Amino acid sequence: MYDFDKVVDRRHTHSRKHDMVLEKYGVDNDEAIPLWVADMDFESPECVRQTLINYIKDGALGYGGDYEDLYEALIAWYKRRHGFDIKREWLCFGSTIIDIILRSIRTYTDEGDKILIQPPVYHQFANMIKHANRTVIENPLKLQGDKYYMDLDNLKAIIKENKDIKMMILCNPHNPVGRAWSEKELQELSKILIENNIIIVSDDAHCELVHKDYKHNFLISLGEEVADNTITCISCHKTFNLCGLQISNVIIPNKTLREKYKSVLEKEHGGDPNLLGAIAIKAAYEKGDKWLDELLDYLQENFKYLKDFMKIHVPKAKVIESEATFLAWIDLREFGLNGKELEEFLNKESKVILSQGYSFGSNGDGFVRLNLACSREVLKKALERLEIALKKLD
């Protein structure tokens, strides 16, 4: 049994989540409960930490190379956990998924081209598109009851009106709304995009964090035609709390697309992984199954605790049903504050630092994203603070 109840003090460790609260939000780092950045406050798996310790004890930390054993571990993981076969030649390294997506934008589109996203969605998608001098086109998700869905009819209309859309960036599973897109949804989406020659870049960062009774569907597992039109970004950063080691992978089954990506990678002198990151994720892929299984149980219990707490103590807060990720999406619109007002109020009154919904797109205004990857004790304290603060608005 792993001790996810252990409270890990990450203050003064160069943690973005814990040590940048004052700078970003004006709340003292030591007084805040930071539940905003999407990394975990659990210890990374012991098998990973011990492997790194053993490697560092050997003394030399020079240039790395020959990562075939890492590729083998990764391929075996996806076969074991997902029943999904990845061919070695499909894989390339990247530092982060943001790095891979931005390179994909530069590789497969030109300045001025239009790129689709589906808000509310990870804010960096829009930022990367704008940074690359491309145009953001939004197909907003639809909230029906307590779950979000893709609006495929609207997508067709948007594509009809915008003939120069070249790419869609998909979040699968979807951050922040917690959808693990079904095979049927992905098949329908892919059909529309393929018919209109729109390439798909799929961010599958949270693919291992799918709740029980649901499964992750890789686009590239849905047939050769879909696979040939898809760039898939994967990483175990989120899975094993290794974000600081910055090593990710991209899967490109289509040889033409892959060679084009590799050409840009070589021009940018990229593609060499972080040495310690490579050592770490190999250990995670080889030895991390049991840790992950127990983590998923704990996260699901945290989500249930959140839902039950809000239902009893803050019934005006609506927790959106989640199928994946360790992030909860909460509707606070009934309290009558816009996003900026809500942010200032919660930071001042509760000192619980959340990701505000407006940063995920205009249809996220009035929502907050809460990181559940913390001990139950910390979650309980945060929710009690939020209850006291929100009741001041009644």
TrEMBL record:
A GO term, aspect molecular function: pyridoxal phosphate binding
Position of the signal peptide: none
Keywords: Lyase, Pyridoxal phosphate
Class of enzymatic activity (EC top level): lyase
Keyword Lyase: yes
Cofactor(s) this protein cannot do without: pyridoxal 5'-phosphate
Residues in coiled coil: none
Start and end residues of each Aminotransferase class I/classII large domain: 34-386
Origin: domain of life: Bacteria
E.C. number(s) listed in UniProt: 4.4.1.13
InterPro entries, per database record: Aminotransferase_I/II_large (IPR004839), C-S_lyase_PatB-like (IPR027619), Class-II_PLP-Dep_Aminotrans (IPR051798), PyrdxlP-dep_Trfase (IPR015424), PyrdxlP-dep_Trfase_major (IPR015421), PyrdxlP-dep_Trfase_small (IPR015422)
Family: Belongs to the class-II pyridoxal-phosphate-dependent aminotransferase family. MalY/PatB cystathionine beta-lyase subfamily.
Protein name: cysteine-S-conjugate beta-lyase
Organism per entry: Clostridium cadaveris
